[in-house]
Amino acid sequence: MGDIQKWWHSSVVYQIYPKSFNDSNSDGIGDIQGIISKLPYLKYLGIDVIWLTPIYQSPEIDGGYDISDYYSINPKYGTMTDFEELIQKSSELGIKIIMDLVLNHTSDLHRWFQEASKSRDNPYHDYYIWSDESTNLQSNFTGSAWEYVPHLEQFYLHFYSKEQPDLNWENPNLRNEIYKMINFWISKGVAGFRLDVIDLIGKKPFEGIKENGPQLHNYLQEMYTHCFKGKNLMTVGETWGATIENAPLYSRPDRNELSMIFQFEQINLDKIPGGQRWDLKELDLQDLKQVFSKWQLGLENNGWNSLFWNNHDLPRIVSRWGNDNGYYRTLSAKMLAILLHGMKGTPYIYQGEEIGMTNPNFPSLEYYSDIETKNIIEERLAKGDDPKKLLRAIQLKARDSGRTPMQWDDTKFAGFSDTEPWTQLSPNFESITVKQALKDNDSIFYTYQFLVNLRKTNGTLRLGKFELLEFDHPHVFAYRRTSHNETLYIICNFHQVETDFSLDTSNLKVLYSNYQDIQLSNKIGLRPYEAIILTDKKE
Ligand code: GLC
Ligand code: CA
Description:
The protein has helices at 32-37, 39-45, 80-92, 111-116, 172-187, 216-228, 247-251, 285-298, 328-341, 371-382, 387-397, 434-439, 444-457, 459-463; strands spanning 13-16, 49-52, 56-57, 69-73, 96-101, 130-131, 146-149, 154-157, 192-195, 234-238, 260-262, 306-307, 346-350, 465-469, 476-483, 486-493, 499-502, 509-513, 523-526, 531-535. By secondary structure, it is of the alpha/beta class. It folds into three domains: 8-104 and 172-449, TIM Barrel (Alpha-Beta Barrel); 111-157, Oligo-1,6-glucosidase, Domain 2 (Oligo-1,6-glucosidase, domain 2, Alpha-Beta Complex); 464-535, Immunoglobulin-like. The strands form five sheets. An eight-stranded parallel beta sheet has the order 11-10-9-5-2-1-13-12. Strands 14-15-16-20-18 form a five-stranded antiparallel beta sheet. A hairpin with a 4-residue loop joins strand 7 and strand 8 (154-157). The structure holds alpha-D-glucopyranose (GLC) and calcium ion. The site of alpha-D-glucopyranose has 10 residues, from loops.
């Protein structure tokens, strides 16, 4: 691919779930002005891009992923003027904004769907997908993917809730409306987009095809031509159906589709094959090494990786691969940051990750209110699942866990708001806060700050070749990054044990680590969750 440098090759993205980030007007709901007031904090962290999850008009059946008007801002979050101010103020700080595009479905309250469901010959009817009969396609939120509309004597397709009817991308008028809307946001000054469940848009429901439909890449190339071409935008597609085989189709530069995708193989490692995300299996470090190195090598000359541990749909990483309880929380959160940020790609930090926020582990099922979580609880209890076992799976995997309010300080509502937040705070909100992290030179925050800055200054981190080391080591995930003038070693002990790692360190020095006093010899003795970056650069 040559070495075409793009701005996102040295950027770090910070993902904001606005509803839970910061409330400026005391209604318990995070908002745009709340984000604006925290821009200096984000600048201090060093990130250069913010990805905002949807802030459009929405009845919020699915956290804003059910859009009823693509052109307006949800009044709970503010106004278009607030949004313009956000673009302006962040650009003054050198921070770009990317928006979330939800193109697979709309809300059932969207004008198109309201029209579409009036009659079979309404001009908007064909913007959605209808059938005289239902098939056995299942919704990702449980139950049938078909909903019956009696007066039409037809079913419509919804891969998510029944309030999220799927759009019919085969209709060229629909596609043109979508491109027009994307261009509206580009003209507002956004720097790119995250494209929600984009690998579903080529669906062929009557052939049972959800992801990776035959027209998917044609649609993306058409979108590129109509919207992205020549504008230097960063685009990232959410693709649960991505494999290392089909991933280059999206992000190989000559394909003219997207800058990169989010693939989820490292996320699915605690799932029993063929099961749902709630059917858990033990995590295995060898699986993690295998998946990451496959993606690092697979897209080496063939596209570009996104690097993430967390997002608004996922539980907290320190509660999964780390140790979220007590002393080792800080060390393990730093280790996970070092592992991820040492790789090639664009790293994403999800709000609260930089202070090591944990899963809330709420004590009973009633605390969990996300639509996906509620549906699965209902379905599994009806099937006779053991409620205790179910609660454990929900604590570990529910989307709610990433959506508890941001913990700014230890005041009554965590500095998120001065009134009761829309959703429960995590019980540990008094002990894990931004305020505390900023005061402590040795906090997780400063590890993230170091790593974000290193990506800007270190070419090896950006473009160096990746090689996995000692695949068979039971505790250590280690790899090497090599460029023409430097070799970096990233060595991470994933477990709460002491272990050795053999390496000729005679020409190496420590660039960063999560412990003090490292003694280098040809056998590095690693303490619990110890992580070290070594370099052979002299100066
Ligand atoms: C994506 C979003 C998720 C949403 C779903 C349907 O996976 O990240 O939050 O529920 O798409 O839009
Ligand atoms: Ca508010």
